[in-house]
Design brief:
The chain has about 260 residues and is an alpha+beta fold. The protein has a 5-stranded mixed β-sheet with strand order 4-6-7-9-8, with helices on one face. Strands 1-2 form a two-stranded antiparallel ribbon. The longest helix is centred in the first third of the chain and has 37 residues. The two termini are about 40 Å apart. The structure holds adenosine-5'-diphosphate (ADP). The site of adenosine-5'-diphosphate (ADP) has 21 residues, from helix 4 and helix 6. Adenosine-5'-diphosphate (ADP) binds next to helix 4 and helix 6. Its main location: membrane. It catalyses: ATP + protein L-histidine = ADP + protein N-phospho-L-histidine. This is histidine kinase. Its EC number is 2.7.13.3.
Length: about 260
């Protein structure tokens, strides 16, 4: 059942009573489950043929006797097949979150090293976009976490900071210890997020108006994945933003040392 309640007031604002509404939403929940199952099984089924496509592409790309133009086209095909693979991985992860089967491989990790690697990984794309990417990180920042998933969190935040910034803008990754917590911040001086969209950015498939208008490519899955991974670590992630001036995402995770 879904419930909602509302006060009823008269013309002078006096309280007349209240309306309490109960709605039976079994069918709606079942429909959402069916949709989640469908997305999960389609993503799963697409993975095997795509792995085969990528394997053959890799062999072809390594061949020395391809004409230059064919080799260049094959690389485009390979790049797009890799994008498809990343998208499928995101959809599978979203499916695992939805049906509660997301498994974390917790172990000793270093948030500073993870953030440093993410910054190095994004260095070239930041340079290409004309964005200065800097990191302000301590030598080490130990915590217990699923290092691979945490890297995914920082990768998503950093790639967004670059995607939603303009040439000449800056993006900064910082991390620090606060008591028994580790805080990772990704800030940019980019296009920002409209105030009325702030509550929705962590939703599945949500894309901002500016993102669509500026034709910035995306699926609306990145932040939903960030939110789910951080929540699975018993952490929180928040966003502050001013349209036209920039955005800061802050993930706070228990160090659990
Ligand atoms: P995608 O980037 O694929 O659209 P995300 O889930 O990563 O999906 O982000 C959802 C939306 O949040 C984006 O479409 C964009 O509107 C907004 N957003 C995310 N990160 C930023 C950022 N650093 N600056 C401005 N807007 C952002």
């Amino acid at each position: 059942f879904s419930t909602s309640a509302r006060q009823v007031r008269g013309p002078d604002g006096e309280r007349l009573g209240a309306v309490l509404a109960y709605q039976e939403i079994t069918d709606l929940i079942r429909a959402i489950e069916v949709k989640d199952e469908f997305v999960a099984s389609v993503s799963h089924e697409l993975r095997t043929p795509l792995t085969s496509v990528l394997g053959h592409l890799e062999l072809l790309c390594e061949s020395d006797d391809l004409p230059a133009e064919a080799a260049a086209q094959l690389r485009v095909v390979q790049r797009n097949a890799l994008r498809l693979q990343a998208l499928l991985a995101d959809l599978l992860l979203i499916g695992q979150v939805a049906d509660g089967t997301l498994e974390l491989h917790m172990g000793p990790a270093d948030a500073a090293a993870i953030a440093r690697e993410a910054v190095e990984f994004a260095r070239v794309s930041a340079q290409r976009a004309g964005i200065s990417l800097t990191a302000d990180l301590p030598e080490r920042l130990p915590l217990r976490a699923d290092a691979q998933r945490l890297r995914q969190v920082v990768d998503n935040l950093v790639s967004n900071a670059i995607k939603y910034s303009r040439s000449g803008d800056a993006a900064t990754v910082t991390a620090r210890q606060e008591g028994d917590r580790v805080v990772i911040e990704v800030a940019d001086t980019g296009i920002g997020i409209a105030a009325e969209e702030l509550d929705h950015v962590f939703g599945r498939f949500f894309r901002g108006g500016e993102a669509i208008q500026r034709q910035i490519t995306g699926t609306g899955l990145g932040l939903s994945i960030v939110g789910s991974i951080v929540a699975a670590h018993d952490g929180t992630v928040t966003v502050e933003s001013e349209q036209g001036r920039g955005t800061t995402f802050r993930a706070t995770l228990p160090a659990r040392l």
